[in-house]
Amino acid sequence: MKQYIYVSMLVALLASCSLDEHPKNQIPESEAYVTADQLYQNTVATLYNYIGGHEDGQGLQGTCRGVYDLNTFGSDEAMLPTRGGDWYDGGLWQSMYRHDWGAGHDLCKNAWLYLYKVITLCNRSLETLEARRQLLDDERLRAYKSEVRAFRAIYYWYLMDLFGNVPLITSSDVSMNQVTQEKRSATFAFIVKELQETVPWLADENSVKPGDYYGRVTRPVAYFVLAKLMLNAEVYNDDDWTDGRRPDGSGMTFRVDGRDCNAWEAAVAYCDKLDGPYKLMPHYRDNFLVHNESSTENIFVIPMDKNLYGNQQQNLYRSYHYRHAAAYGFTAENGSCATLQTLRVFGYGTAEEDPRFDENYFSGELSDLNGRPITDRTGSRLTYFPEKVALDLSGSPYVETAGARMRKYEIDKNAPKDGKLMDNDIVLFRLADVLLMRAEALVRMGRSGQADFDKVRGRAATYHREATLQAILDERLLELAWEGWRRQDLIRYGMYRTLYQGDTAIDEADGHTTVYPIPADVKAMNTKLVQNKGY
To answer: Taking a C-beta distance cutoff of 8 angstroms, is the pair 382, 321 a contact?
Structure first.
């Protein structure tokens, strides 16, 4: 039922006579496409205005109630607990954590409309490029169209990953009777084909360094997405995800560089293409500094510059306690925090606590940027209590202070808009993820992923651990906390239902760990992983 509602919303979007963000809204069409440079600016470059955002539901990351929130707060990684009169929002966030949302849920609706809005703009850009092709030579036309096609393919990937069966629309002129859902496997095949066909025509440039290719979809960006597609191929080729069975990635065939590969071999092949041009930064935090354009590890980012762009980073603002933010000269919303499950994976409070916990979370007593204690309203030291988190904190003495808070990005002391206009580029793709993808693909083939696994853990200077599938899943949370991957990872591992129904589910309603029966589909997936020598 809910996808039919979404399709109706999509038709309304496609039928709309104008989009506020249409590139022609600044100058007349007759002046927008006079030269080749103008054609590029108003068909290709303008699309990059939508990767980030400054209002709810817009952008891939940095804003609220959209794509990022579905991937983060619909997983066991983070939550927005009800804090007395704050953050209930009609049960919005509790339903995300409990997986009982419906078609009218703001996050689902916003993500659907945002992703299709950008896809519609891509379709229009491709049509305009074709209509004005006389302004370009064949090589430039192919390069421009390839960049838009790759950009559109990435947005279809996010859409298909979140919603499964979706309408596959490649024209901006679509009537109601033409809009139908496509099987997820067909959309997956379309995305792979689009990226493989366009990648030779994309610039082989670093997208993170300031310059002509800063923030653009270049060849390494496409390779990263292709690796993700291959790693999740069992999920994306499964058109009935309710029967507890999946197609086998080892039996799939993909053509990569002239040879036939199964899904895991293809994932490794695309990861290999990124291991040379990119290097792990010496220190984890280097990737998230105020000026992180020099990172050798980041592959694709949302460019942030308070003087040039309107893109915002609202996630820190949403997490800080009011008094915590005030100590930096900002305001905040005192909301999001780590779950008990995340504390468990990080080994919080134990002798084996992962050192990346302090890189990603504020906990315990707080100090300002000069090391001076931050106090609460009573004059006592402001303190976060990670283990006191619960789904509903109403009536708790920790209603304002429960939960470890987001720390991921270095504080930009000069950020206006309550600290939301930061200069830290928002990291979407980076090499540490590539290394963990390759480690996982190798293990799923029955081979060792230890070398890549150890590179990531070695940078964090943490204890040795065997690179099993379970260890890699844990490592992905340790390394990639707050980066928007947890939901996808849990689905790939057949563990997305474990928030409330799995073998070690964390029931945050009362703050205790509750053991539930293992569902049949999770049992089947775990049996398969054991057979593949993953555990």
So the answer is: yes
Q: How many CA atoms lie within 13 A of 181 on its CB side?
A: 18
Strand ranges (E), 250-289: 254-256, 259-261
Distances (CA, A) of 330 to 104, 290, 421, 456: 33, 16, 11, 34
Composition of the chain by helix, strand, coil, percent to 5? 45, 10, 45
Collapsed DSSP state (helix, strand, coil) of residue 182: strand
SS (H, E, C) 338-388: ECHHHHHHHCCCCCCCCCCHHHHEECEECECCCCCECECCCCCECEEEHHH
Q: How far apart are CA 383 and CA 392, in angstroms?
A: 19
Under-70 pLDDT residues of the chain: 1-27, 30, 176, 498-535
329, 369, 363: which is closest to 343 by C-alpha?
363
In this predicted structure, what is the pLDDT of residue 11? 52
The residue behind tokens 């930009």 is 412
Distance between CA atoms of residues 439 and 436, nearest Å = 5
Q: Residues in the chain, how many?
A: 535
10 Å CB burial of residue 431 (0-12, 13-18, 19+) is buried
Alpha-carbon span 61 to 77, nearest angstrom: 16
Structure tokens belonging to residue 156: 């279809």
> 405: helix, coil or strand?
strand
Q: How many CB atoms lie within 10 A of CB 447?
A: 13
- Can you give the C-alpha Rg of the chain in angstroms? 23
pTM: 0.91
CA dihedral of 253, 255, 257, 258, whole degrees rounded to 10: 100
Q: pLDDT value at position 493?
A: 93
Distance CA 202, CA 156 (A): 18
- What pLDDT, on the 0 to 100 scale, is given for residue 305? 96
Phi, psi for residue 206 in degrees, rounded to 5? -80, 120
Burial of 139 (0-12, 13-18, 19+ CB in 10 A): exposed
CA distances from 318 to 54, 312, 386, 405 (A): 14, 12, 16, 9
